[in-house]
Specification:
With 463 residues, this protein is an alpha/beta fold. It is built from 14 helices and 21 strands. The chain folds into 4 domains: 26-128, Tumour Suppressor Smad4 (Sandwich); 143-303, 3-Layer(aba) Sandwich (Rossmann fold), CATH 3.40.50.300; 309-373, Helicase, Ruva Protein, domain 3; 383-460, Arc Repressor Mutant, subunit A, CATH 1.10.10. Residues 1-19, 383-409 and 457-463 have low confidence and may be disordered. Residues 138-350 form the Sigma-54 factor interaction domain.
């Protein structure tokens, strides 16, 4: 169960920073008989047999599982599930599996009232579990990243956080602030993308009385407000180049010159920045000053997207239901549907759609939140696939997606290209698996790969 400040599973003792740790393939048990969890089930010699009474399941037994329910096998690249003639069946990625017929699994396995997600390495989850601290649910990947962030903060370094929209960059920035030497000072978060360019300089650096029409009093800027603490510049690359130059000078001299001021004011600030874009590419494109990049761009941490942190999803959903409508319960189908979608908007999108589903359940006077309460488009890809819900399995061969006009295709957005390339990498170049992860038909994905010179190993295009 989820507990504030403690792991869901004993963390054990890590074997030292430089110790080599062998990758341990296995399953992550994320839901069982109505309870959200995050438990690692390592495979021994590449196999694991599960059923009611299995020692691997511990005390959280599932009465709807058969005594010999299913066998999981890992061949070094892929996970296979074989139902052993169970009474209630085994489902792989939302589809029933015939008894004694191995089926490859990409996303999620359902046995009885339990949900399992395969993982090429469950050792981090086995060692660190999932914790809830200061309102944030942190899986092993996020815990490791926050360890790096804390070290950078204690050493007084600046920090740049790279990550997709909605992954929780501000939460990481707050952890950076709290673990640094100015942790007791103010934390000022600035969304640079939301600042109109015409007033960006005034908001960042402040203005003296009379500096412009209507300035009837001194107005401190964000940098002065953060004096003695940390300023977090989210999407700093959205600032105009002239403002970037003034920001660089302020950071190097630790002095801020307000509009209309004759003398600069000393400030003592720790800086943290963030972006969902590649800073080096923006420098090359002339969108970010090279000297500012060298001032704020290192060290850098990359916040993994939610689709790489499935161990957090059931717990996030449980917490949301508990906070919004504690009289409701989570149904297996709802958690399964959420585990099967890629969530391009990450945690932000997951929580918004979860609240919408909770509201739908309340409106329908349902005692629990089910898959039918989740919007068909929730957690699926945008753009060309916006009208195609994420399927639980590949669509039938005869159902072709709408044809696109290659001659009028717009250049692929950098973020979308990165997302597709990452999905290809995660699936080992398997086009069908990548298409399912992105919530689109594999034919659409192949067209995108051809049109935008994205590549995947041809011999891995297995269904």
């Amino acid at each position: 169960m989820e507990q504030d400040g403690s792991t869901l599973k004993p963390s054990g003792i890590l074997n030292g920073k430089n110790a080599a740790v062998e990758r341990v393939p296995g399953l992550m048990r994320l839901f069982a008989a109505g309870t959200a969890m995050a438990v690692a089930l390592p495979l021994k010699n590449g196999e694991l047999e599960l059923g009611r009474g299995s020692p691997a399941l511990g005390e959280a037994q599932d009465p709807r599982m058969s005594r010999r329910h299913a066998r999981i096998h890992f061949d070094g690249r892929r996970f296979w599930v074989t139902d052993l003639g169970s009474q209630n069946g085994t489902f792989v990625d939302g589809e029933p599996v015939p008894a004694n017929t191995p089926r490859e699994v990409q996303r999620v396995i359902r046995m009885g009232d339990s949900l399992f997600v395969p993982g090429a390495d469950v050792h981090p989850l086995e060692q660190r579990g999932v914790v809830t601290r200061e309102g944030f649910i942190r899986g092993p990947a996020l815990q490791g990243l926050l360890d790096e962030v804390s070290r950078a903060a204690r050493l007084g370094f600046p920090l740049h956080i790279h990550g997709e929209s909605g992954t929780g960059k501000e939460g990481v920035a707050r952890a950076f602030h709290e673990n640094g030497p100015r942790g007791t000072g103010p934390f000022v978060a600035v969304n640079c993308a939301a600042i109109p360019q015409s007033i960006a300089e005034r908001l960042l650096f402040g203005a003296k009385r009379g500096a412009y029409s209507g300035a009837d009093a001194d107005a401190p800027g964000y940098l002065q407000t953060a004096d003695g603490g940390t300023i977090f510049l989210d999407e700093v690359v959205e600032l105009d180049l002239a403002v970037q130059a003034k920001l660089l000078r302020a950071l190097e001299t630790k002095e801020v010159l307000s509009l209309g001021a004759a003398k600069p004011k000393q400030v003592d600030i720790h800086i943290c920045s963030a972006s969902n874009r590649d800073l080096r590419a923006l420098v090359a494109a002339g969108r970010l000053r090279e000297d500012l990049y060298f001032r704020i761009g290192r060290p850098e941490v990359t916040l993994p997207p939610l689709r790489q942190r499935p161990e957090e999803i059931a717990l996030l959903l449980h917490r949301e239901v508990r906070q919004v409508a504690p009289q409701l319960t989570l149904h297996l189908s709802f958690v399964e549907a959420c585990l099967m979608r890629p969530w391009p908007g990450n945690i932000r999108e997951l929580l918004v759609e979860a609240r919408s589903a909770i509201q739908a359940a309340l409106m329908q006077e349902s005692p629990r939140v089910e898959a039918r309460h989740l919007s068909p488009s929730a957690g699926t890809a945008f753009g060309a696939a916006a009208s195609v819900p994420a399927p639980p399995s590949p669509p039938p061969e005869h159902r072709e997606p709408p044809k696109e006009a290659p001659s009028r295709a717009k250049p692929l957005d950098t973020d979308e290209r990165t997302r597709i390339e990452e999905a290809l990498r995660q699936s080992g170049g398997n086009v069908a698996a990548t298409a399912r992860a992105l919530g689109m038909h594999r034919t659409q994905l192949r067209r995108l790969l051809e049109r935008h010179a994205l590549s995947a190993p041809a011999d891995n295009e297995q269904e």
